Amino acid sequence: MLxxxxxxxxxxxxxxxxxxxxxxxxxxxxxHAIMGPNGSGKSTLAYVLAGRDDYAVTEGDILxxxxxxxxxxxxxxxxxxxxxxxxxxxEIPGVAGLTFLRTATNxxxxxxxxxxxxxxxxxxxxxxxAGELSIDVEMLKRPVNVGFSGGEKKRSEILQMxxxxxxLCVLDETDSGLDIDALKVVSEGVNALRSPERAMLVITHYQxxxxxxxxxxxxxxxxxxxxxxxxxxxxxxxxxxxxAEFGEKAA
Amino acid sequence: MTVAVMKTKAEQSFAEGFNEMRAxxxxxxxxxxxxxxxxxxxxxxxxxxxRIEEWKYTDxxxxxxxxxxxxxxxxxxxxxxxxxVAIGPLAQIDAHRIVFVNGAHRPDLSSRGSLAGLExxxxxxxxxxxxxxxxxxxxxxxxxxxxxxALNTAYMSDGAVVRVHAEAELEKPLLLVNIRAGAQPCFAxxxxxxxxxxxxxxxxxxxxxxxxxxxxxxxxxxxxxxxxGDDARLTHVKVAADDGSAxxxxxxxxxxxxxxxxxxxxxxxxxxxxxxxxxxxVFDGEDAxxxxxxxxxxxxxxxxxxxxxxxxxxxxxxxxxxxxAVLDDHSRGIFQGKIIVQxxxxxxxxxxxxxxxxxxxxxxxxxxPELEIFADDVVCGHGATCAELDxxxxxxxxxxxxxxxxxxxxxxxxxxxxxxxxxEDEAINEALMGFARGWLSK
Lengths: 251, 442
Prior knowledge:
The complex is a heterodimer.
Chain A: E1 2-11, E2 17-26, E3 31-35, H1 42-50, E4 55-64, E5 67-68, H2 74-79, E6 82-85, E7 92-96, H3 97-111, H4 119-132, E8 143-144, H5 150-164, E9 168-172, H6 180-192, E10 199-204, H7 209-212, E11 217-222, E12 225-230, H8 233-241, H9 244-248
Parallel strand pairs in A: 3-10, 3-11, 6-9, 9-10
Antiparallel strand pairs in A: 1-2, 1-4, 4-5, 7-8, 11-12
Chain B: H1 9-21, H2 29-45, H3 60-63, H4 80-87, E1 96-101, E2 104-105, E3 118-122, H5 123-126, H6 130-138, H7 147-155, E4 160-164, E5 174-180, E6 187-196, E7 201-210, E8 217-228, E9 233-241, E10 246-257, E11 262-270, E12 274-283, E13 289-298, E14 303-312, E15 318-327, E16 332-341, E17 349-358, E18 364-373, E19 379-387, H8 391-399, H9 404-420, H10 426-440
Helix pairs in contact in B: 2-7, 8-9, 9-10
């Protein structure tokens, strides 16, 4: 389970605090949604969970299955089961998608003490998982994400998630830039990965995604703090009233 | 009035060395005369120094501290297995190999038989023949102030004179290998002449490598004259890959391109402490296409300088240049790219790009594009970038479980790969990436 305790985060080189005391518990098997206005710190939370060093944790802790992950490098966190689906997935010109996926998959397996996959084994796995996400394997021969549409990039993130078998999935605005059909495919992919062993944190602006990926709990992150939590109905309430009431509350 | 310049130790040694060697160097009387003339020219010019504009980043006069002894006709005991070791990833290519060791032709180490569609003669024997001599010496007009070339003319011991027949399509690449071997440091001067007949197509790879156990010091002076016939296609690659801590590699490529031909040139330089790759291409015929690219990898105190001049002397030609440097420690990479578009060269299309990846805060990249455009209906552009590894990309890789050192190699390989891919021959590309990976893994 994920435990975030009184987390205070600022941008590393500056003094501006972004997260001002986040407390959050996401048990295994549950999907929690984080909603909030722009600038509230949602993406920062996602990046800090993944271990990006542009941010500094000034107070508090992040525990994954009882162990603090703050000292762990991003690749160690990945091996420990953390996966961040980027809001803007990166293009890596010159590195073929299949090469990237195989390198990542085997790196994580090696760290977890599992046997690495041979190329034929890996190709079989990729074909299966890609098929489930309607991704043409031919596209994976291209450099990572190069020439992919927004929807294709998001589906590619979910493919990575399926291959790396994380136990904490953090989805950062996975719905941004997706049309209705792409949204359905991505949501199906995410739902297929729901399991009693997995905790998921879905970060989103809009309620729409949560029709497809139905959360167990919804939290409102505004002005660097979680200001309200509730069930999935909270998302519908926010749709109606917007985030205004959270902006007016003093920080 | 000429001011007498003090000769450096190296310049004196080169002059003295020539005096000692001149009798043993191959060639007819005409060749001897050419050598004498070149030696005199070198004495007048001396090694180039930084007050000469095109040498401003590479002061050879101060960098070359001594002249290593020249050796020719050395019959170092070596086997084909040694050649395979020395050429590394190039051994994977099914090629016709011509091998030179320390500047001397070694038929015993070369491929048996011949390759259909061309003739190859050793330079040493070609220089005894008047007509062949003409070819070997004539392609360098306009290079009178090129001191490095003068040194090559004076000292050249051997090389390959290659003539690809008109309309021939070589089924295999031709691999011209120069191996630096033996515990004694030495200086070797080789010259290759590549003539590709009209409508022919060929792939020719020059390799400058060393055998493990070779002295850590070495000096190579190489000059290659290239002429690509009308409608011909040549893919020409040079790999200068060494392991020596003090290897100097001075190279000249001088190319003339015929009508509607395609010349694809690529140079990889790594493990060389001091390199100057000078390339000159002149478009003699209209509608020709030139693609020049290269990768130089530097670490420690390596200094790699690529200087090129592309002369659009006729209309309708296209030139593309892409040079990439990966520089670590306090190494230095230099790219000087001059494009001349003469007033008659309308409809010229020329693009140049140089890029450097700096892996350490002490590495340095200097890029000097020069465009002299005298025609008014042309498209010409150039660009240069210099950056560190993209932190966001590194984080993306790490967040997928890829450890930092593996991620760095992945990204550096992808940077290099973009230029290597321009060679468009899978087997040669693989070999080039093989060399780069070897350098990266050290």
